[in-house]
Request: fold
Amino acid sequence: MYKAISVKLINVTAAAAGAALLLGAANSTAHAAANQIVARVSLSQQTMEVLVDGRTTFAWKVSTGDSAHVTPTGSFKPTRMHEMWHSKKYDNAPMPHSVFFSGGYAVHATNAIKRLGRPASHGCVRLHPDNAADFYQLVETFGPTNTSIVIVK
Reply:
């Protein structure tokens, strides 16, 4: 599994580096945009699109907050990351590959993969375990300061 993730990241990193080289260092605005990750979560579509340097690189189904639990909207930066976290609020529930973005809200893996594509969480953004591992490694590679998590209705 890690070999496949590494290969994906090598390809993504190479694409990002190539874009930066093509744009040239003389264009400082374009250069500043290089190596940026934007994870755009659509609550209405229950999807997460990951853009690397403005290009869609991944598109995944998610589960966000159900009718009793809101997923916050807005633009966020990752605040902390844990390869494995257990929820202190929800019965020590496992939250693998957690990328926290607002208080106790995180993008993380779920074993409830049959529920992906519809609201089912307590407000977090849930991903398939493979996708959560990929996203976690992307954020780790590019850095939280170069990552934005944008959640829209």
